[in-house]
Specification:
Length: 279
């Protein structure tokens, strides 16, 4: 059985759940209020760079659109590959951009609470964050649990919430705005962390690409665009395998370039110091 996913689908199948809309509005409004009027009133810190504000708002909107747009309906009802694209937006695209947009003075007050400090310190420890994120990602792609999320909306919402939350923990050691408490890794540590971070996703994506269809709802779903269940799962595996890993490579590459620039600046400073000493 096939179905038509044309213009009418993209115009009508938007997810108008109030919680999604209100959460996105609240995330942007509270952020803009904090970095604007609240910052000025209490002299909390310097003005934010426009690029960081844009990064935060873009991150919120990518998460919002992945849940609000027809992509959500397409992934839940018809295509596994569309669902994988949504998962990548929830974990690899949105959260790191939001962290980049956070100023240190906005997060630092949390460190004053001893319990929050200790729990946050443990959860953002690179080995813990890495393990929690990847084990969770693999777990939810087990066929029985994955199928259950498509039949149970509450479980599905819980899955997405956990994805987003653990993605924040995973990216924190790389993009943390803090120099103390919950700091980011050293530059070399960040590069290694990101390099290793892509491996579990690559393995899962490769496994899905080369196995027969695993997820029952998609096997019996109406076919769209002539895509068979096997091709659909292969596309989903490739999305998880190639674009996701490419994102890790881009981040690692940017970090490596920054590290090289820092080494060059340090070397020039040392040479200038030696030259001044010789004089």
């Amino acid at each position: 059985m096939s179905t038509d996913v044309g213009l009418d689908f993209w115009l009508t199948q938007w997810n108008w759940q109030p919680t999604i809309i209100l959460a996105a509005i609240a995330a942007i409004y509270l952020y803009l209020y904090a970095i604007g009027p609240l910052r000025v009133k209490y002299r909390l810190g310097p003005p934010m760079k426009t690029s960081r504000v844009v990064a935060y708002i873009l991150g919120v909107n990518l998460i919002f659109l992945s849940l609000f747009s027809p992509l959500d309906k397409l992934g839940d009802t018809y295509l596994f590959s569309a669902h994988m694209l949504q998962h990548l937006m929830l974990t690899i695209a949105g959260p790191p951009l939001m962290i980049i947009g956070l100023p240190d003075w906005l997060v630092r007050p949390l460190l004053r609470n001893r319990l929050i400090f200790r729990v946050g310190r443990f959860l953002t420890y690179p080995a813990v964050a890495f393990t929690l994120y990847n084990v969770n990602f693999w777990l939810w792609h087990a066929p029985s649990l994955y199928d259950a999320t498509l039949y149970n909306e509450v479980l599905h919402i819980f899955e997405h919430t956990i994805f987003i939350g653990l993605a924040f923990l995973y990216w924190w050691p790389v993009f943390s705005p803090l120099q103390e408490g919950w700091p980011r890794l050293s530059m070399t540590g960040q590069i290694l962390y990101i390099f290793l971070g892509g491996m579990p996703t690559v393995l899962l994506g490769a496994g899905l690409t080369f196995t027969s269809p695993l997820y029952t709802p998609y096997i019996y779903a109406p076919r769209v665009w002539g895509i068979s269940p096997m091709t659909d799962q292969q596309l989903g595996g490739l999305i998880m395998w190639v674009p996701a890993n490419l994102a890790y490579i881009v981040v690692a590459g940017a970090l490596f370039i920054r590290w090289m620039q820092e080494q060059e600046i340090k070397q020039r400073a040392e040479e200038a110091e030696l030259y001044a000493h010789d004089l």
